[in-house]
# Entry
Amino acid sequence: MRRHLMAGNWKLYNVTAEECEREAKGIAEAAKDAVCEVVLCPPFPFLSIVKKAIEGTNVKLGAQGVFWEERGGFTSQVSPLSLKDLGCEYVIIGHSETRGRFGVGSVKEELLFYFSESDETVNLKVLSALKAGLKPIICVGETISERKAGKQDEIVSYQVERALANVGDIEGIVIAYEPVWAIGTGEFCDPDEANRIIRLIRNKVRELFGDKAEEMRILYGGSVDPGNIKSFMEKEEIDGALVGRASAKAESFG
Ligand code: 13P
# Structure
């Protein structure tokens, strides 16, 4: 039986120590009787503050990204060893926003390559997170043009296969299906379609890792909010959600 997981990707929604502490405490309070696992992924500078705010509660800590090297001359990057040391259990890898594939946004198209994480770097990060004892939450999903071209199944399968290359044991790994066009747009994926893609992801993982695929949690992400969460959680294949905007405030995430 897979335990549901509700992961909050705070992105850049809570950006001061005061906001992070307040919302983390509020969410921990709201989650005190939660049957699902709850994880918060604040911006890097506030990992310690959130860690302290959730101490002794059933909320866990995650990071929004990681570099694949542990140490060296890599200005601005964050080592998996640092995340482990700060008390992170999870780390988001391959989010469309770090792959340079934005659903909406004010960043100019021609600047997006600065974010361009590739399938290869996603895989390196997955391997290094696992080595450090972190649980990767691997994001996959198609853009609107890929969906319009009917390529979503192919794209998602390919991203899953590449992200998991050279992985020996998938225990602890979580995958999140996040169609790029549904992120931050308010235009969420039809729950039946999300369920279908998640089944396809599980079939791909089964092809690669056999029955272990049954234990892997696969989440949906993209404009999840208090009004639509139930329709996703009712679906057989959906094991939880990776929530962006609605996870930043205790009022909505709670
Ligand atoms: P929104 O819930 O804001 O659409 O973001 C989803 C997401 O990208 C979570 O990682």
Summary: The pocket of 1,3-dihydroxyacetonephosphate is lined by residues 9, 95, 178, 183-184, 221-224, 242-246 (CB under 6 Å). Residues 191-209 form the longest helix (19 residues). The chain is about 35% helix and 15% strand. The chain has a mean pLDDT of 95.
